[in-house]
Design brief:
Length: about 150
């Protein structure tokens, strides 16, 4: 959150959050507690579920890792499948803005399909995904692919 405040991007963060959940007016850290404002009242973020917390942490991470790298394990954790395209669009556009290279891990076929859909929609050229598989000797090997293969 500090990176967003230093860059004065609170309005952009709130816009991203409203895209995720249009009932939320704004987001603030009050004291040491993240809170969302609904109908003029701030409520603790734990009331909104893991998906929103994860979504906000990815946004904050992208700003905090400007000109660097962001590593996200289980990127789809807590995110409802209806929000996956929105999440990828956010990641792909904001990572360009912040010049942040994102490495994301998932086991979700839906997440990979969403990645491919959004990458195609945005006409992305500089992205790919790597599949880790075990061969017959139980050795881990990699297969790097362009998103269009999905």
């Amino acid at each position: 959150m500090k990176a967003i405040q230093k860059k004065e991007q609170e309005n952009e963060l709130n816009a991203f959050i409203r895209e995720f959940d249009d009932s939320i007016n704004s987001f603030k850290v009050i004291g040491d507690k993240p809170q969302c404002k609904i109908s003029g009242v701030y409520r603790d973020i734990v009331e909104f579920g893991d998906g929103l917390r994860h979504y906000i942490s990815i946004i904050c991470g992208l700003y905090a890792c400007e000109n660097g790298y962001l590593f996200v394990d289980e990127i789809d954790n807590g995110i409802h499948y209806t929000q996956l395209d929105r999440l990828w669009e956010l990641i792909l556009t904001l990572s360009k803005k912040t010049n942040c290279q994102v490495f994301a891990i998932t086991h979700s076929k839906e997440m990979l399909e969403s990645f491919a859909r959004v990458a195609k929609k945005l006409e992305e050229q500089d992205i790919s995904y790597t599949l880790l598989v075990k061969n017959k000797q139980q050795e881990i090997t990699t297969i790097s692919m362009n998103y269009e293969v999905l």
